[in-house]
Amino acid sequence: MRTWVSRRVAGIQPSAIRRFFDILNTMDDVISLGIGEPDFATPQHICQVAIDSLRRGQTRYSSNAGAIELRELLAAKLNELYGVCYDPQRELVITVGASEAIAAAMTAVIDPGDEVIVVQPCFVSYVPEVLIADGVPVIVDTYVQNNFAVTAADIAAKITPRSKAIFLSYPNNPTGAVVPREEMLRIAALAQQHDLLVISDEAYDRLVYGVEHVCVASLPGMRERTLFIGGFSKSYAMTGWRIGFIAGPAEIIAAVAKVHQYDIMCAPTMAQYAAIQALRHGEPDVQRMVAEYDRRRRFTHQGLNAIGLPTFEPKGAFYCFPRIDHLGFSDTEFCERLLLEERVAVVPGSGFGPSGTGHARLCYAASMENLEEALLRMGRFVERYGK
User: Fold this and answer.
1) 237 Rama class: left (phi>0) / alpha (psi -120 to 50) / beta
2) Which CATH class is domain 57-280?
3) Which segments of the chain belong to CATH 3.40.640.10?
4) Are the C-beta atoms of 42 and 70 separated by less than 8 Å?
5) CATH 3.90.1150.10 residue window(s) in the chain
6) Measured by CB atoms within 10 angstroms of the end CB, which terminus of the chain is less buried, N or C?
7) At the fourth CATH level, which superfamily is domain 7-42+284-382?
8) From first to last of its 387 residues, what are the pLDDT tens digits of the chain?
């Protein structure tokens, strides 16, 4: 009998994250620290604008690239934050979350056999998106010894004549790592030296603590060779609204817009009105949420180390990435046992790439009450098996 599924897709493994959520959905009294999204509700004034747009009957398609008002406000915000200027007409596309932006970017720039350097640990979709676009993922591993921050030397060792792009994601999911400006400048120089495109997923750009976020496109010589991907999900607590963006050189964005046009048509109209309100009036909400994440970050980082799970200090996003291999379990077994025995859900580090093996991802975008109880339960678990 004929096999209908393509070999390319058949060879891609399902997300490790989903498997654990399928299990926990059958259980009671679980504290879930596995889902990577804000625990805050979208601010009410943002929701209200979307509701009002629906009541006014504003439910038609927008421009394929997104409402021009939204693109203009977003261009102004990126210029304000990072000093990088984009033409809202030709260099910005509003997408269905950052995930669609990544998929459209890969389709638009990769030819069969092109190599894309992917830094791991990384979000679970990056390598599959390269494969789906018929590219070749070339993995650069990072490790806890360097706080999971990639270096230019790490990347240089993987460059070949077939290299086309470097895929970066800082602040990093799953580790919470950031790369200092000095190292990003060296990476930028490397990209220019070898004429490489940089695809930079900066979805957590506003969630940094005590450090600056280094926008790759703002670095000298990088605006014309960077695809800047971001969104509203993390900074404005708008994950379910599915509003992202991609910005970059007009020639590449035209190709991305073509893919977006045929795959999606446009991002949800009412969500675009909500994003307009977020850009106009949402900055106090961002600052409030970031301050609370920072409080939880410090509490969780200190608590994990105190119960015997060594954890480097994350400087971005809302994840901790503790080591668990000293307990004698694989990271998958650790997460399964922790879920079944103590009703705490975290995600195996190996699901984000081999260099994440021996770690677990814990999302501290949860109430302090849940974080306190989760650490208590995890402490019992470590005491039980750590001996």
Assistant:
1) left
2) alpha beta
3) 57-280
4) no
5) 7-42+284-382
6) N
7) Aspartate Aminotransferase, domain 1 (3.90.1150.10)
8) 778 888 888 888 777 666 666 776 777 789 999 888 999 999 999 999 999 999 999 999 999 999 999 999 999 999 999 999 999 999 999 999 999 999 999 999 999 999 999 999 999 999 999 999 999 999 999 999 999 999 999 999 999 999 999 999 999 999 999 999 999 999 999 999 999 999 999 999 999 999 999 999 999 999 999 999 999 999 999 999 999 999 999 999 999 999 999 999 899 999 999 999 999 999 999 999 999 999 999 999 999 999 999 999 999 999 999 999 999 999 999 999 999 999 999 999 999 999 999 999 999 999 999 999 999 999 999 999 886
